[in-house]
Design brief:
Length: 496
């Protein structure tokens, strides 16, 4: 005999099941109503092709009743094999189709954890409007080229030839490798190439590869999924390659990237796709890649620190930027341009110009700009004289200060020059240099300095008045006196 208590429990359980079923139906109806308010056609299927969501907009496009097709197999509802294959099997993110005379673009998203595929059907016109809005947003965030070929100053024949070649390269879609000494204007050319290209309305993103650690560079370039590592942003983050889609990405100091990053970059160039850190989804990207280096990549290939296959992928089109000493005739023109740009009215004395024409300019245009900035800051009146120049090594013995500290060891002098040079390069870009950054740069030189060794040397340089150390992670800046001392150290008087 069944007890009354047992019967009561069964009745209560049945009541809860009916209530749960009612809640589930209410939630399903609510979701369906929400999906029917959007302008896009929405389709959700499981991995076997069983339809779980089919909103009214999509039903109107395929001339069916939305309620009749839920829990039906996709191939029984659509008679378009090409659309079914794209939704169920493609690795592409989107594709254009014509459905009964209507041009649509289908966006496909595979949700691995739920074993489902979500397809969104948009009208082509609407998709183009969304893309235009995204492009405007990119420009508002500063992701656009800021210079054109008109901003590249030079009447020297070699420079004019480089500009003409660069304009031709801009019209191609192939990768470009820009080579030249530090400070010659490689990034300026990259901006101008994008501005002259068919992608000029798309985004332009630039990154200095040597300024980031391997892990940080990977996450910046390729993005990451939520939970990929400690501190990862909730919801994940797009990488620069995704953000540069239909535009250009400029990778400066490409010779400094690790072999791990090189292998990921090679995949982008070969396959036109990326995978975020910690993710499984393959994301197609349409990006033009421009790279630059002041390193000898052939030497790096020989010592195994740069992949040969990547080099030939990057070096499809090559552009060499001449150093300032190869185009000395442009120096007066550049001086005039930099002074005019500063907004000051000054005259440069003839002996200063003569000195500039004879100087070697190891830092090229970047060094010239720093020197002009220094002169305009210290000069009195509206005439720049030789006394306004920072110390620059040359053949004149009387230009060398006798009271600069000179270490007994040539290596110590070289280390000091190296540290100050790195700080100055980053200061010229508007950035301070951290101990870790200087230490990483030293790995490419004849000596390797740890962050602790860098700290001790910076302490001494600060006492001597050549640098100013920031608090915490603020980094270090070189002083005007430090710039003069750097020029002194680079001269033959300190290195021999």
């Amino acid at each position: 005999k069944i007890s009354e208590r047992y019967i009561s429990n069964i009745i209560e359980l049945q009541r809860k099941l009916l209530h749960a079923e009612w809640d589930a139906k209410q939630m399903s109806d609510h979701i369906q109503n929400v999906l029917c308010t959007v302008d896009d056609g929405i389709l959700v299927v499981n991995e076997e092709g069983l339809i779980t969501v089919f909103n009214n907009q999509l039903a109107a496009l395929f001339h069916v009743d939305a309620k009749d097709v839920v829990n039906q197999y996709l191939e029984h509802v659509m008679n378009r094999r090409d659309i079914i294959d794209f939704i169920m099997e493609s690795n592409d993110e989107s594709k254009f189709f014509n459905i009964d005379g209507v041009d649509v673009v289908i966006f496909r998203l595979q949700m691995m954890k739920e074993n489902t595929i979500v397809a969104t059907f948009k009208s082509v016109h609407q998709a183009f409007e969304i893309e235009k809005t995204a492009q405007r947003e990119m420009r508002n965030q500063g992701f656009y080229s800021k210079y054109s070929f008109d901003d590249i100053i030079g009447e020297n024949e070699v420079m004019k030839e480089r500009k003409q070649i660069a304009k031709k390269l801009a019209l191609s879609e192939h990768p470009i490798l820009i080579q030249g000494e530090t400070g010659t204007g490689k990034e300026l050319f990259a901006h101008a190439i994008h501005e002259h290209s068919l992608r000029k309305n798309g985004p332009f993103l630039a990154v200095n590869c040597s300024a980031l650690t391997e892990t940080l560079l990977e996450s910046e370039l390729f993005g990451y999924e939520e939970g990929a590592f400690t501190g990862a942003q909730r919801g994940g983050k797009k990488g620069l390659f995704e953000m540069a889609d239909k535009g250009t990405i400029f990778l400066d100091e490409i010779g400094d990237i690790s072999l791990t990053v090189q292998s990921h970059l090679l995949r982008v160039l070969q396959e036109g796709e990326i995978r975020r850190i910690g993710g499984k989804r393959i994301i197609p990207v349409n990006v033009r890649v421009i790279t630059a280096t002041n390193k000898n990549l052939h030497d790096k290939m020989r010592d195994g620190s740069f992949r040969t296959d990547l080099f030939y992928r990057l070096n499809v089109l090559n552009l060499y930027i001449p150093s300032l000493k190869e185009r000395r005739a442009d120096i007066p023109l550049l001086i005039k341009h930099l002074i005019t740009k500063s907004g000051k009215w000054v005259k440069v004395e003839e002996d200063v110009l003569e000195y500039f024409m004879q100087y070697e300019w190891p830092g090229n245009i970047r060094e010239l700009k720093s020197t002009i900035d220094y002169m305009l800051t210290v000069c009195e009146g509206n005439v720049v004289t030789k006394s306004d120049l920072p110390f620059m090594h040359g053949n004149k013995e009387d230009s060398v200060r006798a009271d600069y500290p000179v270490c007994e060891s040539v290596l110590e002098n070289q280390e000091r020059a190296f540290i100050l040079d790195v700080i100055k390069q980053y200061n010229d870009k508007g950035k301070a240099a951290s101990r870790e950054l200087i230490s990483n740069q030293s790995k490419e030189s004849d000596f390797v300095l740890s962050p602790q060794q860098i700290r001790r040397r910076l302490d001494i340089l600060e006492i001597e008045g050549f640098v100013v150390k920031g608090r915490g992670r603020a980094g270090t800046k070189i002083t005007a006196e430090g710039i003069e001392y750097l020029y002194f150290l680079k001269s033959k008087h300190a290195m021999h």
